[in-house]
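To illustrate the input format used throughout this study, we show a single complete record. The first block contains the structure-token representation of the backbone; no residue identities are included at this stage. The design step must infer an amino acid for every position from geometry alone.
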């Protein structure tokens, strides 16, 4: 690849490809420099260090991830939106394991401030949950429950952790249906009851 046009954005995109091939921890300055046909030092004109490079990959992957989910959820509400959200979440994670792993990493606030990724993620996730009429702190609790359920299921699936002969897709579908029922019947706090925080 020619060095002309080398930018932080192109490095992030190439890093995302490398993450899918070699894992998130496989992203190195040396390997990306080799792919672009330049010396390692050339990359430091665009990123400060390996930490920033990996964080830029995280932001790139997170943007792709939430955009794919938002496209799937658009125009849907309630259970239909939840199913679309869950299925898009799982599809991206299984198709792009390195990029998905990148989305699980924290990004420094100053780098995050220059993007709309966090706002898009919040808008899409909270928008999907709107039909369930949750308020804080229940909304945050519900988001954490969904994320941890999806992540745990996908991690087990990717590692071949489901040994029972029942089709994994059927269990996924039933699990998402169960989450819908739970969200519809979320335990409400009594009038005047305060949160533990």
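Output of the design step:
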């Amino acid at each position: 690849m020619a060095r002309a046009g080398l930018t932080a954005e192109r490095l992030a995109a190439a890093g995302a490809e490398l993450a899918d091939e070699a894992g998130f921890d496989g992203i190195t300055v040396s390997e990306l420099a080799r792919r672009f046909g330049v010396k390692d030092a050339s990359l430091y004109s665009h990123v400060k260090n390996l930490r920033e490079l990996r964080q830029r990959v995280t932001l790139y992957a997170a943007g792709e991830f939430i955009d794919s989910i938002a496209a799937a959820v658009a125009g849907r509400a309630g259970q239909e939106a939840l199913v679309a959200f869950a299925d898009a979440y799982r599809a991206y994670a299984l198709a792009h394991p390195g990029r998905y792993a990148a989305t699980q990493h924290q990004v420094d606030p100053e780098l995050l401030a220059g993007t709309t990724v966090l706002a898009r993620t919040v808008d899409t996730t909270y928008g999907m949950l709107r039909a369930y009429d949750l308020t804080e702190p229940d909304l945050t609790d519900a988001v954490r429950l969904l994320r941890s359920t999806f992540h745990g299921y996908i991690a087990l699936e990717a590692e071949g952790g489901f040994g029972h002969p029942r089709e994994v897709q059927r269990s996924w579908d039933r699990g998402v249906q169960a989450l819908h029922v739970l969200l519809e019947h979320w335990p409400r706090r009594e009038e005047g009851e305060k949160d533990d925080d």
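Structural context for interpreting the output: The radius of gyration is 19 Å. The CA atoms of residues 52 and 110 lie 11 Å apart.
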